[in-house]
Amino acid sequence: TMGRRNITQVSDFILMGLTDSEEIRLVLFTLFLLIYLITVLGNVGMILIISLDSRLHTPMYFFLSHLSFLDLSYSSVITPKTLDNLLNSTKNISYPNCFIQMSCFIFLGATECFLLSSMAYDRYAAICNPLHYPIVMYTRRCWSLVFGCYLIGFMDSFVNGLCMSRLHFCKSNIIFHFFCDLSPILALSCTDTHDIEIIISTFAGSSLVLSLLTIAVSYVSILSTILKITSTSSKQKVFSTCASHLLGVTVFYGTMIFTYLKPSKSYSLGKDQIASVFYTIVIPMLNPLIYSLRNKEVKNALSRVMQK
What we know:
single chain, three-stranded mixed beta sheet, 10 helices, 3 strands, 75% helix, globular, disordered N terminus, G protein-coupled receptor activity, GPCR_Rhodpsn_7TM, membrane, GPCR_Rhodpsn, Olfact_rcpt
């Protein structure tokens, strides 16, 4: 029947956003703008401190600077358009722009998953093999790991884009979300999405499982090493180097799993939007705070940079 039906491809989508209430929209605009400014300041600040202070030119901070870059990009892909929609009555987004936003979002999200895995591996190498650490985590390997993260992110995004390009939208062009996300767009398609959902779920699921498995194995090894240490102060010192990363991983993966690892039919506008706000707008702001407020090296580096 699809071959016989006259399909009118939509030229743009309407992002329904978070609320219809003008008062709430104004409150959300102020809140999101403040969060975005803190995100930009925090992540740009983190990148600058790491690049300007030679004592932070280590693998851990090399990965952290890339995490800040991803968070900054991640937030900039979603937040400016969300702020624009909160102020304006017209909430249109063109068909190409919608898919560019979605592709960038998937690319950056998948890259961040594997970057967090690389950071866990780095902590494993530093704590479990401290004597071999400079040999294991040499500069070329660090660059190779980061390049691998970006490559996997690109492949995930490319496969996703390829699948989504096969969809037709002839029913409605209203997206019940504040950005172009997978579930609400799949729900709009008048094409059968079953096969596409399986392909996307396979790629996304395998990426998530592989990155989580790397993190789990690294932290099980770290925990067994910490338990072997007899000195309480040494235990605390070792654990404090992992605490920030562990907190960042828990927050990022927690919201990701809550939102995506469930059937698309159970897409709930309220709950899913709250989770989406958290990982697209709030988490990019939290990461620089998590890694700097708990870190004496970053605080000392900041004071040295300020003195210079």
